[in-house]
């Protein structure tokens, strides 16, 4: 399966996504640091926009959002690198291995982390709403929770498949 175009595309896409993930993560960390360096101009801009109300709270919330990008980037890194490794085993023609079950389980934990962080964002949006600060909308998503469950189940399927394959190899 070395020449499978879909797997080649998936491999390149996952690598690029991981690089972009780290780039955006670094950008958010730089933004966090710059919020301290340029605190006064930022405060002046917010004071002008919101008539001097809730400036310190808004800056704190912006900093918390930037800090949340760190666990997001770490979780996405887990997803991209583990999925890339799984694609590698598919390309090699041997995807039903115990290592892939462990990789899927790790992806499941990363997805769960993202879902929990999404709830944190929902809380932040509620606070921004109370402060009267402009923000994007947020709604809890059921699909992400289904994906978490599905990945944990698939990890069990891969573990059982690998065990059955190993048992079959011993009987032949």
Contiguous low-pLDDT stretches (5 residues minimum) are none
Secondary structure tally, helices: 5
Number of domains: 1
Radius of gyration, in Å, reads 22 Å
Structural class: mainly alpha
Outline: elongated
Q: Whole-number average pLDDT?
A: 93
The description of the largest β-sheet is:
none
Task: Tell me the distance between the termini.
Answer: 25 Å
- Measured by DSSP, the beta-strand proportion falls in under 5%
Count the beta strands. 0
**Helix proportion:** over 70%
Q: H/E series, N to C?
A: HHHHH
How would you describe this protein?
The chain has helices spanning 5-37, 39-49, 55-91, 98-131, 142-171. The chain is an all-alpha fold and 172 residues long. The protein is built from 5 helices and no strands. The chain is 84% helix and 0% strand. Helix 3 (55-91) runs antiparallel to helix 4 (98-131). It is elongated, with a radius of gyration of 22 Å. The two termini are 25 Å apart. The chain has one domain.
Topology:
Elements: H1 5-37, H2 39-49, H3 55-91, H4 98-131, H5 142-171
Helix pairs in contact: 1-3, 2-3, 3-4, 4-5
Sum this structure up briefly.
The protein has 172 residues and is an all-alpha fold. It has helices at 5-37, 39-49, 55-91, 98-131, 142-171.
Relevant terms:
elongated, 84% helix, 172 residues, mainly alpha
